[in-house]
């Protein structure tokens, strides 16, 4: 990023002690005290950097998606919940929900010794109104709703991985910028030290340059900590099990203008994962309602019975009976279950309509945010950064030749660094806005317009 003056054999690796005059001014003492404080902080930061920054395994976006599909906790939990749908289907497919019943009745005469009467009855309650088919349909709708939730979990993870991957690449660029700044500042310190020894630069320039090196080390450490935090967040989303957090590698997508808002709204309504779940739940509620309404139909009882009875001491009578029964739906007509199923259907239907209204507004608003962030990145890339980089190169060479002061070069460096940070912040804002829009669309943003 920076065209630096590389340190030679005398490159600094820490803070050096600087001799002061016998009667320093108060301002000069303040500079020395500030430098000592920053040097101590920089030494501590270097130690923390060595302890806190493990080397991560470089992974591409495709590899992260594949790993997340197998190991992401949210996807695994949603996949396990599919078993509830399979269990519901298995329970609905049984031939009858009622088991056959067998009853026995035995009597002993008071005047006779031994069994005087025996009766055995086998009965079965039957569903004859097609309840089994409706029950299977409701169970299948339940599984489809669970599959929609799995698809939503997959897309949520996909979107989070993509967002953190982009953020990780921006963090990497920030680390590289801060590292280049450190190299640049170290080079300035060496030049300032050489010019001081030659009597061409005051001692304060050396002290200020040393303090700037320490601050540059601190900024580098802060950037590395932010990058490591993003990598760990990424590892948590994908279910990373290795000790070192994954290191995103590759090139991020180039910033693009947002597609047409009307097309985005259409795609969002068609593919929004939350809408897909609501639609699947509505179909399940409708299937449940149809089943509850059919459950009002009576389930008749049929069976056979055998009866043996001693009428006298020598007479025995055997009987074979046919048992038929039909419940009368007078008091219990499944009123509560039907009302609850209707309410769930109404709630889900209204939730879908509300989601469509909110979704359209959210997509339009988020698309505007993407477009605004895109405009900011273009201004930085095309106008601001090239001019400042050229200016810094000229000022750096001018300081090396003794034509400019250290303060001029530092001011120019600070301006470029501020702009670089602002550009990365704008780029990060752009990627974050894209990720939020993708979360609403249920697809990559430019695929929503038919682009690859």
TrEMBL record:
GO terms for molecular function: efflux transmembrane transporter activity. SUPFAM superfamilies: Outer membrane efflux proteins (OEP). Gene3D superfamilies: Outer membrane efflux proteins (OEP). It comes from the Bacteria. Coiled coil: none annotated. Belongs to the outer membrane factor (OMF) (TC 1.B.17) family. This is TolC family protein. It comes from Persicimonas caeni. The lineage of its organism: Bacteria, Deltaproteobacteria, Bradymonadales, Bradymonadaceae, Persicimonas.
């Amino acid at each position: 990023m920076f065209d630096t003056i590389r340190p030679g054999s005398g490159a600094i690796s820490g803070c050096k002690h600087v001799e002061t005059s016998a009667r320093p001014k108060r301002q000069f003492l303040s500079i020395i005290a500030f430098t000592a404080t920053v040097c101590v902080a920089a030494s501590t930061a270097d130690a923390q950097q060595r302890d806190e920054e493990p080397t991560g395994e470089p992974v591409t976006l495709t590899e992260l998606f594949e790993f997340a599909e197998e190991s992401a906790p949210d996807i695994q939990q949603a996949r396990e919940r599919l078993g509830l749908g399979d269990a519901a289907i298995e329970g609905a497919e049984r031939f009858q929900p009622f088991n056959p019943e067998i009853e026995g009745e035995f009597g002993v005469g008071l005047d006779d010794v031994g069994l005087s009467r025996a009766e055995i009855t086998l009965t079965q309650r039957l569903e004859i109104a097609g309840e089994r088919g409706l029950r299977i349909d409701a169970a299948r709708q339940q599984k489809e709703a669970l599959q929609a939730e799995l698809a939503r979990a997959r897309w949520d993870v996909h979107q989070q991985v993509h967002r953190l991957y982009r953020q990780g690449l921006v963090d990497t660029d920030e680390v590289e910028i801060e590292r280049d700044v450190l190299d640049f500042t170290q080079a300035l310190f060496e030049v300032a030290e050489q010019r001081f020894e030659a009597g061409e630069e005051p001692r304060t320039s050396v002290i200020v340059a040393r303090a700037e090196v320490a601050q540059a080390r601190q900024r580098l450490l802060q950037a590395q900590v932010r990058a490591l935090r993003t990598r760990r967040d990424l590892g948590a989303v994908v279910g990373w099990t290795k000790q070192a957090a994954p290191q995103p590698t590759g090139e991020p997508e180039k910033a693009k203008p947002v597609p047409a808002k009307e097309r985005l709204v259409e795609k969002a309504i068609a593919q929004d994962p939350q809408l897909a779940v609501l639609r699947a739940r509505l179909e399940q509620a409708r299937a449940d309602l149809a089943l509850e309404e059919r459950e009002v139909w009576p389930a008749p009882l049929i069976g056979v019975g055998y009866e043996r009875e001693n009428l006298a001491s020598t007479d025995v009578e055997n009987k074979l009976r046919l048992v038929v029964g039909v419940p009368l739906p007078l008091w219990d007509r499944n009123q509560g279950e039907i009302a609850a199923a209707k309410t769930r259907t109404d709630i889900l239907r209204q939730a879908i309509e509300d989601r469509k209204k909110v979704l359209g507004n959210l997509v339009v608003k988020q698309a505007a945010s993407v477009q605004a962030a895109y405009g900011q990145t273009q201004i930085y890339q095309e106008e601001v950064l090239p001019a400042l980089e050229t200016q810094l190169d000229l000022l750096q060479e001018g300081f090396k030749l003794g034509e400019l002061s250290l303060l001029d070069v530092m001011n120019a460096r600070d301006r470029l660094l501020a702009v670089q940070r602002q550009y990365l912040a704008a780029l990060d804002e752009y990627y974050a806005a894209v990720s939020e829009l993708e979360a609403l669309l249920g697809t990559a943003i430019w695929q929503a317009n038919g682009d690859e």
